[in-house]
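FAQ: What does a ligand-bound record look like?

Like this one, built around adenosine-5'-triphosphate:
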Amino acid sequence: MIQRTLILLKPDAVKRGLIGTVITRFEQAGLKVAGMKMVWVDSEFSRKHYEPHVEKGFYSSLEEFITEGPVVAMVVEGVSSIEVVRKIVGSTEPKEALPGTIRGDFAHHSYNYADTNNKAIMNLIHASDAPETAKKEVALWFSDKELHSYKVNNENHTF
Ligand code: ATP
Ligand code: MG
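The answer part, i.e. the structure of the complex:
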């Protein structure tokens, strides 16, 4: 089943010059980019995006992290893309994320370090975690006009 999912390259990925490297991972898996833009999120938007986390103890650190610079937001499309993208991204805690995943290969931060220092886990990427959240997040970040349906060269091989 073909799905769309939201991916954010968080400010740490942008500032470290990893935009191209990270996007390549998704392109290499045969996922199709349906929309993409750069956005500098403010506090109000952060609360909407991270609505399930607003009441949690780490939320203020998370808001500080996601608003500290621009993010690259993208919607990708593919077969079971929500699950596939989470697999490519790896576990939330980079310390535990497996090599071969984006978080495992390009970050190493731990929950323990984050909590001791009142920081959010710096883990480079956000990716929608379920069909309902993907639908909500895609609609929050992109208008219909910003999302495109088109054929890619390798359509016959990847879809
Ligand atoms: P994301 O939603 O960003 O894709 P995720 O789904 O892997 O990440 P969530 O549990 O939704 O993880 O947490 C959202 C983000 O909040 C994490 O990516 C991380 O940056 C931060 N975070 C989560 N738990 C903690 C924590 N205990 N301490 C500090 N930061 C945390
Ligand atoms: Mg999440």
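Follow-up question: can I read anything off the structure? Yes, for example: Residues 53, 58, 61-62, 92, 111, 114-115, 120-121, 123, 126-127, 129 surround adenosine-5'-triphosphate (ligand 1) (CB under 6 Å).
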